[in-house]
Design goal:
This protein has four helices and ten strands; from the N terminus they run ββαββββαβααβββ. The protein is elongated.
């Protein structure tokens, strides 16, 4: 006889994985890149000085030429065609880092915006490895209890006098925990005011399978 039990537990989110961008539009490529590099350097220096910020890394560096757009007389009135002469350049640098004290995330984001950060790409909230491990153990335990309850119900339906004996009835145990993906605070938005980052809980589920010898 095979019995499956379901268990669930919750892991408190305490880490914010942040992705930000610094953009600048200038007439020359050198000016655009210089502006972004200067701000990015100050941002990285500031982040490195904070004990609650970890794993700072550069995600991308881009430099894009911009061309003039004008109405296209051969198509609909609202259609535009792109000219061949470069009129400006947009430089961008994206940085990623981890905030291990989530209560300070909102304030830090505001500070970075004041320093010149122009875009908050994403803020992913997750639990620490230790918290996920604790919740996983609890989910497995809850799944085991559910499986044992179902096993006793199944045995009782065969014979009301049968009591589940773990030593003699259970011949195999297996389990498969599942951790729900981190929650996203915001995605691909330009900064528009004070930031509030409030942690929640991530769900850890576990399926426990018991094989019984009846």
């Amino acid at each position: 006889m095979t019995i499956r039990g379901q268990g669930k537990a919750f892991a408190t989110q305490s880490i914010a994985n942040v992705d930000i961008s610094i953009e600048s539009l200038q007439k020359s490529a050198k000016a655009a890149q210089s502006k972004v590099s200067s701000i990015a350097s100050d941002v990285v220096k500031h982040l490195k000085g904070l004990s609650f910020v970890k794993e700072i890394q550069t995600v991308s560096v881009t430099l894009t030429p911009n061309y003039p757009k004008r109405p296209n007389k051969y198509y609909q009135q609202n259609e535009e065609e792109v000219g061949s002469e470069v009129v400006s350049y947009t430089a961008s640098t994206s940085l990623a880092f981890k905030i291990v004290t989530i209560s300070k995330a909102g304030q830090l984001i505001d500070e970075l915006v004041q320093m010149g950060v122009t875009k908050i790409n994403d803020v992913m909230l997750t639990a620490s490895e230790e918290e996920i491990e604790r919740a996983t153990d609890l989910a497995i335990k809850n799944g085991m209890n559910d499986a044992l309850r179902k096993a006793q119900t199944a045995l009782s339906s065969i014979d009301s006098e049968i009591t589940l004996n773990k030593k003699h009835h259970i011949v195999d145990i297996s389990f498969s925990p599942y951790y729900s993906p981190p929650s996203s605070y915001r995605s691909s938005r330009r900064y528009s005011g004070a930031s509030y980052v409030v942690s929640g809980q991530s769900t850890v589920s576990a399926t426990v399978t018991l094989k019984l010898k009846v």
